[in-house]
TrEMBL record:
Belongs to the FAH family. Keywords: Hydrolase, Metal-binding. Pfam families: FAA_hydrolase (PF01557). This is Fumarylacetoacetate hydrolase family protein. InterPro entries: FAH, Fumarylacetoacetase-like_C, Fumarylacetoacetase_C_sf. The lineage of its organism: Bacteria, Bacillati, Actinomycetota, Actinomycetes, Streptosporangiales.
Length: 321
């Protein structure tokens, strides 16, 4: 360990490991402070966020503690959520792209343009008068920001969906949109991987989407690397979401393209379920998914995903043995 002087006021949280022993850590620059003298886990920090945040500010601005070099630590998923609320069809361009990709009757550029205009108008109407499309994911799908992703052998159409993830810091039940951001502790990165060929049930089309099969394989929710407090993120409606595959930029979109902003999503989720500290609300995927390019994840692919101010996760894909 080393003495780390003059830490920045900006900090983040995550879960780290030394010799497989996990602990919560306060991240300041390239150094980490072990928080086990205060809390046993990041989840425990979030359960008392109102008391914890000023303590974290004080710790981040003190040099009287033994700091550990970030490079000496393994980085785990920053937290283990109790609930994962996911948002579908929440980016205008993404929805338009998907609608066109799923149609095989668009044989001319004019037909594609007309279809895009039609779907775009529908999304504008939905944003003005509709409500978010929310569903649940399984916490068991959460993985670390640098873990390998094992591509399940039952699908060859596994796709990336880098998303801004909202971390709840105060209980929220049937709150208004105006109240919603007061219940947010911070933000992190999530790649909501999807098996595209399992989204729709072929045996009973009336059922519609099957998110259980298409989104919940082990490792399908890489999370992190850091949980950044809301005070350091600025406007969550003006962040850049960027994902590359083998160095090629696939997603590069602003959260400005969201149909329903963070406050609207958190409020809508709270109308149905009681949100608790540590719960995640995913905000949906921007455009640039593999299905739009006819290009899906393969063995050896490397995904790197970053969102303004939240760090970068790096996931290597492996075929299922």
């Amino acid at each position: 360990m080393e003495t780390y002087s003059q830490p920045s006021r900006t900090f983040a949280l995550s879960t780290f490991a030394i010799d497989a022993e996990e602990f919560p850590g306060l991240v300041v620059g390239e150094h980490v402070l072990d928080l086990r003298g205060h809390w046993p886990s990041v989840d425990a920090v979030l359960r008392e966020w109102d008391r914890a945040e000023p303590v974290l500010v004080e710790l981040a601005n003190s040099s009287d503690h033994p700091w550990i070099a970030l490079s000496d630590l393994a980085v785990r998923a920053p937290l283990r959520p109790r609930q994962v609320i996911q948002s579908g069809a929440n980016y205008r361009t993404h929805v338009v792209d998907l609608a066109v990709a799923h149609r095989d009757d668009l044989t001319t550029p004019e037909a594609v343009a007309a279809a895009r205009a039609e779907v775009g108008a529908m999304m504008d109407e939905r944003a003005a008068k509709g409500t978010p499309y929310l569903f649940t994911g399984l916490p068991s799908a959460v993985a670390g920001p640098y873990d390998d992703l094992v591509l399940p052998g039952y699908s060859d159409r596994n796709d990336w969906e880098l998303e801004l993830a909202v971390v709840i810091g105060r209980p929220a039940f049937r709150i208004t949109r105006e109240e919603a951001l007061d219940h947010v502790a911070g933000y992190t990165i999530c790649n909501d991987v999807t098996s595209r060929d399992l989204v729709f049930r072929k045996d009973m089309k009336e059922i519609g989407t099957d998110w259980f099969r298409s989104k919940n394989a082990p490792g399908f929710l890489p999370l992190g690397p850091f949980l950044v407090p809301a005070r350091f993120v600025g406007d969550p409606g003006d962040l850049q979401v960027t994902l590359t595959v083998n160095g090629e930029v696939m997603q590069d979109e602003s959260t400005k393209d969201m149909l329903f902003d963070v406050a609207a999503l958190v409020s809508a989720a709270s109308q149905i379920v009681r949100l608790e500290p540590g719960d995640l609300v995913l905000t949906g995927s921007p455009a640039g998914n593999g299905i739009a390019f006819g290009r899906f994840l393969r063995d050896g692919d490397v995904m790197e995903g970053t969102i303004t101010g939240l760090g970068t996760q790096r996931i290597v894909c492996r075929s299922e043995a």
